[in-house]
Amino acid sequence: MTQSSPFLRLGTRGSALALAQAYETRRRLAAAHGVPEDDIRIDIIKVIGDQILDRALSQAGGKGLFTKEIEDAMLAGQIDIAVHSSKDLPTVLPPGLMLPAFLPREDVRDVLISRAPGGLAGLPQGGKVGSASLRRQAMVKRTRPDLDVSLLRGNVETRLRKVGEGAIDATLLALAGLKRLGLIDRLPEGVTATIIEASDFIPAVGQGAIAIECREDDTRTRELMAAINEPATERALAAERAFLHELDGSCRTPIGGHATVTGDRLSFAGIILMPDGSEAHDTTREGSVTEAAALGADAGRELRGRAGPAFFAALAGA
Ligand SMILES: NCc1[nH]cc(CCC(=O)O)c1CC(=O)O
C-alpha cells in the first residue's frame, strides 16, 4: 500500500503519553487485522489544552480542550479514528461521533510522588502538594487538611522533576501514565512513588483506559475497531461515564468514579467532594454488566440528591 492510501488514519495529540497510547492502538490494530504497522498512519494534531499551562483547565472552558481539533479533523474526513485517554473525554461527544472501542485498561490507581517515604501520611506538616486535578486536590485536603495544595500543570517529567528538586513536597499522578511512559522504574534521584489503593482514593472516571473515537456513519472503521474492543473495560466505562454525566456538566466538580467488572458482574464506587475537602458524599453499586450505564446514572442521582442544591451552588461559586 502507498502512503497516500493507508489502511487506517489515526489522529492523536503530540504529548509523549498520547503518542504511547497511539502506538499501542496501532500495534493492536495491526495484529488484529494482519496489516503492517506502517499501513496505519499517525497524524499528530495540536489541541488548545496543550497550550494552557498557567491555569486550571476547569477555569479555561473545561470540556473538550484535548479533543476538539482532533474531532474536527475526523468530521472533515482527514482521519478515521482518534485515540484518547478516556479521562480527558467529555461525557457528551459532538454529534456524529461515537466511541467504538476501549482497550484493555491499565492500572487505575493514583500514585503519590514524594521525596519522603510513607505516602500522604509521610509528608511533612504543612507540606506543599502540587496537582492540576480538582479531584486529587480535594482528596488530599480531605485526608491531610494541613497540606498546602496548589495548582501544578505541565507534563509528567516536569512534575517529577519539581518533586526531585524540592520545589514541592509531592504530586499525584496516574500509575497508568507512568507505566505507559516507562517512568515508573526510572524515577528521578531521591523520588519515591507510593501507590494509593483505589478504595482509599477513588480514581477519575476513565483513568487508565484508552478510548477510540470514530464517525458514527463510518461502518468500515466501526467494524475494524470491534476487533480491539475489550468488553469489560467498555462496560466499566459505561458505568463511570453515566455517573459523571449525571453529576458534572462543567468539569468543575471534584469527582471520582471507578467500576470493576468480574465476569458478568459490575461493582461501582463514586464520590463527589467540595474542593477544600470539607464535604464528601460517596456511594457504591453492584449489578449486572448489562445494566452498567443505569447503575452509574443511579449512583450519580443518589449523590446529587444527598449533596443537595447548596453543595452545587457552592461549587459554582468556588
Ligand atoms: N489529564 C492528564 C492525563 N490524562 C491521562 C493521564 C494518565 C493516563 C490515564 O489516566 O489513562 C493523565 C496524567 C495523569 O493524570 O497523571
From TrEMBL:
Biological pathway: Porphyrin-containing compound metabolism; protoporphyrin-IX biosynthesis; coproporphyrinogen-III from 5-aminolevulinate: step 2/4
A cellular component annotation (GO) from this entry: cytoplasm
Cofactor: binding comment: Binds 1 dipyrromethane group covalently.
Catalytic activity: 4 porphobilinogen + H2O = hydroxymethylbilane + 4 NH4(+)
Record's keyword annotation contains Aminoacyl-tRNA synthetase: no
Record InterPro entries: HemC, Porphobilin_deaminase_cofac_BS, Porphobilin_deaminase_N, Porphobilinogen_deaminase_C, Porphobilinogen_deaminase_C_sf
Gene Ontology MF annotations: hydroxymethylbilane synthase activity
Listed cofactors: dipyrromethane
Keyword list, A-Z: Porphyrin biosynthesis, Transferase
Domain Porphobilinogen deaminase C-terminal: 238-304
Residues covered by the Porphobilinogen deaminase N-terminal domain: 8-222
Record-listed S-(dipyrrolylmethanemethyl)cysteine modification sites: C251
Enzyme Commission code: 2.5.1.61
Keyword DNA-binding: no
UniProt xrefs under SUPFAM superfamilies: Periplasmic binding protein-like II, Porphobilinogen deaminase (hydroxymethylbilane synthase), C-terminal domain
Enzyme class, broadest EC rank: transferase
Note: The porphobilinogen subunits are added to the dipyrromethane group.
PANTHER family: PORPHOBILINOGEN DEAMINASE
Family: Belongs to the HMBS family.
Name the UniProt record assigns to this protein: Porphobilinogen deaminase
Organism from which the protein derives: Blastochloris tepida
Species classification: Bacteria, Pseudomonadati, Pseudomonadota, Alphaproteobacteria, Hyphomicrobiales
